[in-house]
Structures are given as C-alpha cells and as structure tokens.
C-alpha cells in the first residue's frame, strides 16, 4: 500500500507478559503481536523485545499471522514482551458483494469451509433460529452483516471485564454482556449459520480521530471480524462500524484460540498475567 491523503501513520507499543509465584524454570512461548503487511496496511518497522533476553524465531502460521516464538531456559520470576511497530493504514473501499447464490456456491463453501463450521468458541444455538432469516430477508450480503451485528449489540451489552478470554459465544450470549472478543465470536457464529464465511481478527484500535498527530494515547487491544463477500471485508460489530484506518490488523483465525497475543507452556509455580498496555501515536 502506498501512502495517500486518506492513509494514517501509526506507531504502536504493546506491553504484556507474566509474573510467577516464584521462579519458572523454563518456558516456551508464541507471540502474535506483529501487524500484518498487505491490503490496507504497510508495516514500516517492527520489533519484539523479550525479557529475559533470548533468541526469537519468526515464522508465518497457517492463517498468515506472523509468530515470534522463543523459549526461556533459565529460572525467571517474570516474563515481559514488548512489541513496537510503525504502520501505514487506510480504510478499504466497500465493493459490491457476491449474491447469496454465489456465496453459497460449492466453489466458495469448499474453499472457505473452515470459516463456515462452528467452533467451541463460536457455537451458538438461538431459541428462535428463524430470526436470522427474518433479519436477512431481502438484504444483500453487506446489509445482512450490518443487520446481524446490530442484532447482537441489542442483546449483548459491551461491558469491560464482563468475561475472561476463556469465554464462549454461548456463555456471553446467556449473560447478555461481554467484551469485543465475545461480540465478535457471537457475530461470527451467526454469520456462519446463514452461510457467510467469517473469520476472527485481532489487532489494535486507535481510540479517536480527534487526537492530534504526535500525541501518544492509550490504545486498545481489539477484536473484530472479516467476512467473505467476493473479497474479505472487515467489520467491527462491537462499535457498529466498518474496518477503518484506525483498525490495525495483527492476526486472523477461526476464533480467539488461533490468535492469542501471547501463549505458551512453562514449568514452575502459578503465573499471573501482567495485563496489556497499548500505546499508540498517530504520526501522520
């Protein structure tokens, strides 16, 4: 992507990790914290810093996400990971969608079958499944995604801290509240039920266009979705918007389990997450 008058430059610093009740003797970890280049994004620079300092091996996983893998083979009370990136970002144009007949054609359903089946995270049985047919009746693919997203927002309130990363669509639907991860899982599950290939997206959201260029602000680790309408199209069901230049894509997958920012195994006492701190600065 070449810079244009409608593109943004964003600098991002993402801090996370674990602290242990004592010393972990060893750990193996995978970090999915590097923004992706391609389409609406151009990653100018990126770096991962791990403490304790260790070698980091980088590869691209099955879903096209950049993974930084590393193991710590020395006793450590704390594991810290900081990812810094500089990204140019723009909003994608909204093209005319496939017809319902085209999106349900075997050439599409076979190609994207893994994004059409329910996972343990996205499975959801509605009390009135015919409601989905009513919602999408007479609407094209883009309009149907908007209608289903609005339906989810009406029934699941966004409440920070309402659920944990282990939550499923069924659990947050029953509670009637959740976070962006939950709203994305539910919406993806319902889109798959009506035959729309949909995948989970994790990344960062710059909070507001009102902030000045050069001003550092608290960003958000965020989750939204992409659906296939002839091209993969980004939609943020939590905020009721299309994917914009404020959305920075880091990872894609079937659900959260494919995109967790930092996960691994270790030998040692109980661990507690350090939380997540994201700092974002608009550079252009």
Order of helices and strands: EEEEEEHHHHEHEHEEEEEEEEE
Tally of strands: 17
Just name the CATH architecture of the largest domain. Answer: Roll
Which assembly state applies to the chains in this document?
Answer: single chain
Mean pLDDT: 94
How much of the sequence lies in strands comes to 35-45%
Low-confidence stretches: none
Q: Report the helical percentage.
A: 10-25%
Largest sheet: 6 strands, antiparallel
CA distance, first residue to last residue: 15 Å
At the first level of CATH, the class of the largest domain is Alpha Beta
Polypeptide structure, described:
This protein starts with 7 loop residues before the first strand and ends with a strand. The strands form four sheets. Strands 1, 3, 6, 10, 16 and 17 form a six-stranded antiparallel sheet that branches. The protein has helices at 100-103, 106-111, 130-136, 141-155, 169-175, 180-193; strands at residues 8-24, 26-31, 41-51, 57-60, 66-72, 76-89, 157-158, 177-178, 198-205, 216-218, 220-228, 232-236, 241-242, 247-253, 262-267, 271-273, 277-282. The chain has two domains: 8-90 and 260-282, Sandwich (Immunoglobulin-like); 100-258, C8orf32 fold (Roll). α5 links the parallel β7 and β8 (177-178). The chain is 19% helix and 39% strand.
Condensed summary:
By secondary structure, the chain is α+β, with helices and mostly antiparallel strands. Helix content is 19%, strand content 39%.
